[in-house]
UniProtKB/TrEMBL annotation:
Keywords: Dioxygenase, Iron, Oxidoreductase
Organism: Elstera litoralis
Family note: Belongs to the 2-oxoadipate dioxygenase/decarboxylase family.
Signal sequence interval, chain numbering: none
Protein's recorded name: 2-oxoadipate dioxygenase/decarboxylase
Cofactor(s) required, per the database record: Fe(2+)
Enzyme Commission number: 1.13.11.93
Any one GO MF annotation of this record: dioxygenase activity
Length: 297
């Protein structure tokens, strides 16, 4: 079920990020496979979140029943956020991780907090009673019957979407003035901010994609350990609805989601002395990658 959820969310990102779809099409044409390493999602740690649980709890409640457990904590202080990684305990190297970040409203101005409340106050909870029961059964028993899983999958996937109405332009501009990340949440919600291909040599891939004219990040991010190297396409530009001062709905172009690439080297397993893949993240890398959505005009 965890893998099925990842594939649904991956497919959704392919629809929303043309550069990612073109890259995957190239790999398929060449007979190559992709390894979905992780998806990143954003949440809001603030006093007003409508019908949704506060902060990461809105999404962790969907991940824990599917075998995910927190395996890392990453301060993102420059962004006034905190990131946490969640790995799937049964297949930690094979089923994609989730990188769940929280934006801390109390670290911003009162005006910013008021704009966040305006945007999120009417958020709805996408879960229905049947899906809540299915998630509880997964957490209790580790499995459910196929029909229940099939019915629950699209509802769980809807948890990774926007659950509030279109924001006002006034609130959006107030958010963007202090946090490109919160401005992104205002239009995209809890959707995949990015999905990630695990590749053998991210530096060579970056050069190849730049040569093809794709919107690649300028530099590769390197973790403090040197074992994790990341880069990304720049965010796709998307049309999103806003409410203007007259109450009319208007469309504006804003940054959407993007696609990332990561190379992970092996490390020594302290418990066994053998080698294992370094599945960790890096606060500096993450903050550099997050800049891909900081391009709103």
């Amino acid at each position: 079920m965890a893998q099925a959820l990842n594939m649904v969310l991956f497919d959704d990102l392919m629809v929303r990020v043309p550069a990612a779809a073109a890259y995957i099409a190239d790999k398929r044409a060449a007979g190559e496979k992709s390894v979905h390493d992780h998806g990143a999602v954003r949440t809001v740690d603030g006093p007003v979140t409508g019908a949704l649980p506060r902060g990461q709890d809105a999404l962790v409640r969907l991940l824990t029943p599917l075998g995910y457990r927190q395996n890392g904590l990453y301060p993102l202080d420059r962004l006034k956020m905190t990131g946490r990684s969640y790995g799937q305990v049964d297949f930690p190297e094979d089923i994609a991780q989730f990188f769940v970040s929280e934006l801390h409203v109390d670290r911003f101005s009162p005006a910013f907090g008021a704009a966040v409340a305006n945007v999120l106050k009417d958020s709805v909870d996408p879960l229905d009673a049947a899906t809540v029961a299915t998630l509880a059964a997964f957490e209790r028993d580790g499995a459910v019957d196929l029909d229940a899983a099939v019915a629950a999958l699209p509802v769980i996937a809807r948890g990774f979407d926007r659950h509030h109405p279109a924001p006002s332009l006034t609130d959006y501009e107030a958010l963007k003035a202090e946090s490109a990340e919160m401005a992104w949440i205002a239009t995209e919600g809890n959707a995949f901010n990015h999905a990630t291909d695990r590749v053998p040599d991210v530096d060579a891939l970056a050069a190849q994609q730049k040569a093809l004219g794709r919107p690649m990040k300028d530099a590769v991010e390197v973790s403090a350990s040197g074992r994790v190297r990341q880069t990304a396409f720049r965010a796709a530009q998307v049309q999103r609805p806003f409410v203007d001062a007259s109450g009319a709905t208007v469309m504006r172009e804003v940054p959407g989601s993007f696609y990332e690439f990561i190379t992970r080297d092996s490390m020594t397993d302290d418990a066994t002395g053998g080698k294992k893949l370094d599945l960790g993240f890096d606060s500096s890398n993450a903050q550099g990658i997050f800049k891909m959505t900081a391009t709103a005009s």
